[in-house]
Amino acid sequence: MLAPTSPLVIQRRIAWLLVGTALGALVLAGRLFYLQVVRHGELSRLALEQRLRPLPVDPRRGTIVDRNGNKLAISVSADAVYAIPSEVEDPAATAQALAGVLGMPADEIEERLRSRQAAVWIARRLDTETARRVRALRLPGIGLVERPQRVYPNGSLAAQVLGITGIDNQGLEGLEFYYEAHLRGVPGRVEAERDAAGREIPGGISRYVPAQDGHELVLTIDQVIQYRAERELERVVRETQAELGIFIGIDPQTGEILAMAQYPTFDPNRYADYPPELRRNRAIADQFEPGSTFKIVTGAAALEAGVVRPDERFFDPGFVAIGGGRVSCWLPGGHGSQTFVEATENSCNPVFAIIGAQRLGPETFYRFARAFGFGQPLGLDFPGEASGFLPAPGTIQHGELLRWANIGFGQGVAVTPLQLAMAAATIANGGVLMKPHLVKEIRTADGEVLERVRPVALRRVLSPGTAAEFARILRSVVVNGSGTRAEIPGYRVAGKTGTAQVPNPGGGYGDDAMASFVGFAPVDGARLVGLVMIYKLGVQPRWGGLWAAPVFRAIMGDALSYLRVPRREETPPQPGTGEDGRPLALVPNVLFMEAAQAAARLEQASLSVSVEGSGTLVADQIPRGGAQVPQGTRVRLVLDQELPRPSAPEVEVPSVLGKSLAEAAAILAGRGLLLNVEGSGFAVFQSPAPGERVPAGSAVEVRFALQRDGGRP
User: Fold this and answer.
1) pLDDT digits (tens, 9 = 90+) for 65-114
2) Residue 3 falls within a domain, yes or no?
3) Residue 606 annotated to the active site
4) 63 inside domain
5) CATH code: domain of residue 620
6) Into which family does the record put it (predicted)?
7) pTM of the full structure
8) Which one of 547, 559, 566, 587 has the fewest CB atoms closer than 10 angstroms to its CB?
């Protein structure tokens, strides 16, 4: 039998129980104080965040404008449909009702309506009528909110430069992608207090956090020059049945890109309707064997290194054996005795092979080519810039000297169109390689300048004297050589033609070719550099001087006039008398003329003509243009091939009076006509007049003014 517990023990136990209870209550009180007082703010915020279900509000994406403020990419408001699944009373019926309006599968909509998320998107970028019909349904749990939509008001203009945006208004390609951090802005949100089931709490808290709009990009691109370039590329690509046409226009003093055009192209407003490869900016991302346009690098480097003089004579028998191989001249039998200047005019491959491989040598040649920017990105503010390919000396296992001989005339090296254009700009500006750029300024939505892009000189490549001397040689190529069709009256063009074989993927060369021309004007104090490339022409002949040079002339002539560059007429040299007292005649440059036209031109200059070869086009002439010879001298014309003459049906000219530039361009393009632009604003005059019939492909001159008065100013 247990002994009875004493009253003292019982009292002690009760005391300990009271102490334990008091301590427990104290701990609970402390914990309660900690939660209710110390962490009150934090826990209240967390509780509110659990009840507040945000619906994102997209910012307005920053505008992209050209250098003159013309809008190239804008954001406009468009409605989007969203659902609060917890508030949808009948998901199946709601899905059926929405499917009939939105044109979406009902089962896809129903799946979203049955999701466990607080809010889901059903459809975005609705047009006004569709949004009105959705509102009229008055479906529980279904709402509409405005979301910005990207619009490109000029359609395909500069499409590969601008790029595209996705369904969530995010940049996917081009400048839209590269400058995403500046353009996208900061999202806002709409918040409403909801219960655990997702239902909105009556009288609960609701708040709106506004979005911050994206920054504005001011490009170096000029809308007018860009439009002209795209129009001319479309014309020549169609005429030559080519795969691709590219034009780049650059201010050589600053590195600003005024135009970067490509055809075929696409409309970024409907990019899904086009093959993805059309979105690729091939002027930056692709690399090509340049052909004879690369001779501007070889020639300028040779002059700078002092391994050749302009008046130094070379003899071309039609080929040169070098490095265990043979480099042939494009002219059967060769050009015979010629100076370095004449070899450049003639685009003589053997001479430039000797200069590249022997006079310069691989190490020096490589050093100059790298200095010009080849074999490496130039740092353009654009995604996906390619490096090109320039072999380093000592890395070619077999036939290195022959390889550098080929590089001397532009074969066996890969360049981007941008690299080639910047090399020409280096010669044009006095010998400094500038960093190219596409963006001029970054501004806030209110117009405050956040960043202004300054010209950046990467390095000096040539001395000013060498650059000026080689610019004069390139001027002679246009006056007396293969670049004659690039001449623009009053602007003294300098440049170089190129006709390059296109290498096969598996090695060697096939039948495809690329015609090109790179040049600048005026030759002294150049304001604009231009590069034209026409890739895989489908007609014969495929000479750069025949096809690319006229495109250069058309684009650059308009651009220089638009930029208000003053014309300076040249007085042609007057022939005197020879040592025997006989009067001399100045031989005109008749390259790429048809035989009958060339003969008439020579006879007007008091010269006689002899013809050899078949065809109707003048591929070569002896003596060259610019030579002074006794009157009556016989000029030998070498003919080759026929000029293709596509027939064009006639179309009726529509009226574009009162229309904007974009509207006028679209209307004329729909009839197969081109647009020549003067001024800005709305069309006030056009020639030919509405109703006249002209051949398809003809140009219509349209004058624009700020007043939409529909008549002559």
Assistant:
1) 999 999 999 988 778 888 888 888 888 888 888 888 888 888 888 888 88
2) no
3) no
4) yes
5) 3.30.10.20
6) Belongs to the transpeptidase family.
7) 0.79
8) 566
